TrEMBL record:
InterPro entries: HD/PDEase_dom, HD_domain. Gene3D superfamilies: 1.10.3210.50. This is HD/PDEase domain-containing protein. SMART domains: HDc (SM00471). It comes from the Eukaryota. Residues 28-153 form the HD/PDEase domain. CDD domains: HDc.
């Protein structure tokens, strides 16, 4: 059982942070280092305020938040293996094999698509690694609310064949569902207000689209 006051290898955190900042420079603005910093801040907040902090390792929370998008399949470089990239990186920076393996597992388990495909597997992983619930909630919180709105349009704008209509559809396909998928009480509380902001935005979108003779019904769905 980890303690909220368990020692953290600050040198490891610093070197990994520098690596991630450089690595994320190749991503578009929706998944840049600013996103990582926001997720890290949210993860630390949730870890501190959610029950069961003594059962979570703060070092695993921090490293998993920093590395959760390293090896993301949307940006994976040729020759990179997402299943071992984080593990190998941490080992090269001096982490123990046990720590590296745990962080790799949490990072792989944070995937939205992975949970949709096998929700029972996600629940099992959270039982083994409670840090996953914290990092997963933090990552999903940054996908919703006003920042989430900006990230949607940034992401679709970076795709040459994507349109604003694709952005609006993404709210219905995924983002409005995230509140119900939060794992911590703190995450659910924060997600409630952020979801309300998205719903309000979609109402505005529908109203303004209607003035242009464009069907805004999809935004109001």
């Amino acid at each position: 059982m980890a303690s909220i006051d368990a020692p953290v290898n600050e040198g490891l955190i610093t070197s990994v942070t520098k690596y991630v900042e450089t690595y994320m420079a190749n991503y578009d603005g929706s998944h840049d280092f600013n996103h990582i910093q926001r997720v890290l801040g949210l993860a630390k907040y949730i870890h501190t305020h959610a029950p069961g902090a003594s059962e979570r390792d703060p070092q695993v929370v921090t490293l998993s938040a920093l590395l959760h998008d390293v090896g993301d399949k949307k940006y994976l470089k040729p020759g990179e293996d997402a299943s071992s990239l984080v593990n190998d990186l941490l080992i090269s920076h001096g982490a123990t094999e046990e720590l590296a393996k745990k962080v790799q597992t949490v990072c792989l388990g944070a995937s939205y698509s992975g949970e949709i495909k096998d929700p029972a597997r996600t629940q099992e992983l959270i039982k083994l690694h409670p840090e996953l619930a914290v990092v997963q909630d933090a990552d999903r919180l940054d996908a919703i609310g006003s920042i989430g709105i900006g990230r949607v349009f940034t992401f679709t704008g970076a795709r040459t064949k994507a349109s604003m209509a694709d952005s609006i559809q993404h709210f219905h396909d995924k983002l409005l569902k995230l509140q119900s998928m939060m794992k911590t009480d703190v995450g659910r509380q924060l997600a409630e207000e952020r979801t309300r902001r998205m719903e309000e935005f979609l109402r505005w979108w529908g109203e303004e689209a209607a003035f242009s003779g464009i069907d805004g019904a999809s935004a109001l769905a």
